[in-house]
Each structure stands twice: as C-alpha cells, then as structure tokens.
C-alpha cells in the first residue's frame, strides 16, 4: 500500500475551489465590521434619548442607525453606530436632512443634532420638504 497521495485533476480543481471559498469567506467576515462608521450626535443621556437623536444624526448622511451608541466625551459627545463604510461630504453652509420635523419645538430638538452630525451649527431655520416624512435644517 502506497502512502503517496496524488490527486487527480478533478480533485485538484475541487481542492483549489475549496481553498478560495474558505479564504474569501473568512476574509470577508473579519474585515466587514472593522470599517463601520459612527456619527456624532452631541450628548446622549440614555437609550430613550438615543432613539430620538440617532435617527436624526444618521439621516444627515442617508444611512441607517444600527441601534448602537456610545458616549465618547462624558456629558458632551456621543456617537451613533452605523454599518456604513463611507459617508458623503456635506457642503456647508446648506440644508441637511433631519427626518420629519413636526413643529418649531421639534426642530429645536432635532436640528441641533443634525448640525452636530454635519460638523456645523444650526442657524435656526428649517422647512418641511416632504410632509410627514422629511424636513431639512439650515446649517452654517
């Protein structure tokens, strides 16, 4: 009985395919979450506060909030998690999306968050662009 294994051409083919598939899936699984980006939202005090602020902050960049948040500077700054690997440039001054804003009091809560996410300052102006669905805050 011989101990030298010599794979046939078809066995070599399947061995090479298996190596490629295993290598690709392992590489993808490891590298994918490492590049996810967080978006600034100002101070977030608790989970209920995050549920208000994070959807606004991520709307600025038209990405989805993944439900995660963390404080980066106690009492001053928190970030909202996304699965995004890149974010578009925001041209300021200008208008940024903030999701639906119901009235001036709602704007006073949401527009400062949108401004922080865009690295700007809210100038006090906002308008509804799609009733019940989208409003924009003017940022300088």
UniProtKB/TrEMBL annotation:
Domain Mannan-binding protein positions:
47-81, 105-139
Highest taxon in the source lineage: Bacteria
Q: List the keywords (alphabetical).
A: Signal
Classification via Pfam families: MVL
The signal peptide, as residue positions, is: 1-36
Protein's recorded name? Mannan-binding protein domain-containing protein
Question: From which organism does this entry originate?
Answer: Planktothrix pseudagardhii
């Amino acid at each position: 009985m011989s101990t030298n294994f010599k794979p046939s051409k078809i066995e070599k083919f399947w061995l090479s395919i298996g190596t490629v598939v295993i290598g690709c899936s392992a590489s993808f699984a490891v590298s994918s979450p490492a590049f996810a980006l967080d978006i600034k939202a100002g101070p977030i005090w608790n989970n209920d506060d995050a549920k208000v602020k994070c959807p606004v902050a991520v709307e600025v960049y038209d990405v989805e909030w993944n439900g995660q948040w963390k404080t980066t500077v106690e009492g001053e700054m928190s970030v909202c998690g996304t699965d995004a690997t890149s974010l578009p440039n925001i041209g300021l001054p200008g208008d940024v999306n903030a999701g639906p804003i119901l009235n001036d009091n709602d704007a006073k809560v949401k527009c400062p968050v949108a401004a922080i996410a865009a690295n700007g300052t809210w100038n006090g102006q906002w308008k509804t662009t799609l009733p019940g669905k989208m409003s924009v805050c003017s940022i300088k």
